[in-house]
What does this fold into?
Amino acid sequence: MNRKKGTHIIAAGFEYDRIVKPMLEYPGDKIIVLRDNGGKYPLSSSLAKHFLKKLKDFPVEIEEISIDIYNFDEVFLKMLELIKREIKERRVYVNISSAPKVTLVAMISSVFFMRGKGDIEIIYCKPEEYLIPRIIETLDRKMKSEFMDHGGGRGVKEYESIPIFPIEEITEIDMKILKILDEKNGAESIKELVEYINRDESRVQRSSIQYRLERLEEKGLISKEREEKRVRLFITRVGEIYLKGGSQ
It folds into this structure.
């Protein structure tokens, strides 16, 4: 298959072959690397830098982006920014082969968010061999026992809730509602929200706003709190991310 030359976006991990070899099958002359800033896992970041250094021997342009690759929101928004920039002139290949799990989900989510807006393809490469089983055999007894007790990670440090974004398109009025709820830290009532919306000489009917609010609540973009006969409105975390992504 003849594919267009484009930009590869990757997350710096403990991989080399699965980053470089796809450049032959999926031609590219530029690699954008999401590199961890080392804040949470300095030892892992140090090891990833080793493979990034090897990558620089490959004859292509390399752009490094330093972020917290274990933060879904940060990766997702940065991916949107990069994809929107690159697809203006070329194809984008998103290689998830070396990405940590949270990063991988954020990268895939960003591609689905941008569906239909450019030439994008997700790549995952299977290795000829996984080296972890051989590495385990070289561990001393204590470390090997610890691995057999806990697996590749020990304990739980924190939890990350992954947003589920709506598949259908969000309308202009939906985005306006989200923007107002974000800027005003919510609305005390539907009446107040309608007043905010119509301050710029819009003439949106309350019934129309109520319908859009029901749809936004179904999508998880807003939440409601009922107090007697009044309904207070708030933007959710998913709504905030969606708003930021859509306004970039």
The mean pLDDT is 88. The chain has eleven helices and seven strands. Strands lie at 6-11, 28-36, 61-67, 91-95, 120-123, 222-227, 230-235. The two ends are 33 Å apart (CA to CA).
